[in-house]
Amino acid sequence: MIATFSVKESKNGLTFDIQVTPRAKRAGIAGQQDEALKVKVTAPPVEGAANDACIKLLAKELGLKKGQIGILTGQTSRRKTILIKEITKDELEKKIKGVLEQQSAAALKLPPNNLFLNL
Predict the structure, then answer these.
(1) pLDDT tens-digit profile of 48-87?
(2) If you count Cβ atoms within 10 Å of the first and of the last residue's Cβ in the chain, which end, N or C, has fewer?
(3) What is the pLDDT of residues 89-112, one digit of tens each?
(4) Which pLDDT does position 103 carry in this prediction?
(5) Is the dihedral of CA 72, 49, 37, 68 positive or negative?
(6) Cα gap 82→20, rounded to integer Å
(7) Domains of the chain
(8) What is the pTM assigned to this prediction?
(9) How far apart are CA 25 and CA 41, in angstroms?
């Protein structure tokens, strides 16, 4: 599921790309697109409102503090590189994988823990 998505290590922390959809009907992480997380926010792309909404959403979904998350590049673009601090690469990848699995399960209406009956 996370095969095309990559978290990179930098001297300041960990980075990954997101593709933002501002003014969406619902906020949330909507899967992957072109090696980036698809992030939908309800805020408009005006005066940094969508950027702030992205940071708040990522913090909530990944269980991180807002202070751990920053936008490294793409302040005025829909494609952004996110910087995450104070977490290991393995921990971050597990958190992202968990969010993507939850999103997939919700789309398929499966239980989040993927319990299946053995027939």
Answers:
(1) 999 999 999 999 999 999 999 999 999 999 999 999 999 9
(2) C
(3) 999 999 999 999 988 877 676 555
(4) 82
(5) positive
(6) 11
(7) 8-102 (3.30.1200.10)
(8) 0.86
(9) 8
Residue from 74, 13, 69, 4 nearest 32 by CA: 4
**What whole-number distance in Å separates Cα of residue 37 and Cα of residue 48?**
19
First to last CA, the chain: 25
User: Mind listing the pLDDT tens digit for each residue in 32-45?
Assistant: 998 999 999 999 99
Which pLDDT does position 119 carry in this prediction?
Answer: 47
CB-neighbour burial class of residue 18 (10 A; exposed 0-12, middle 13-18, buried 19+): buried
Exposure letters 68-90 (e unless 16+ CB within 10 A, then b): bbbbbebeeeeebbbbbeebeee
Long-range contacts from 86-90, C-beta under 8 angstroms, 24+ separation:
86/13, 87/13, 87/14, 89/7, 89/9, 89/14
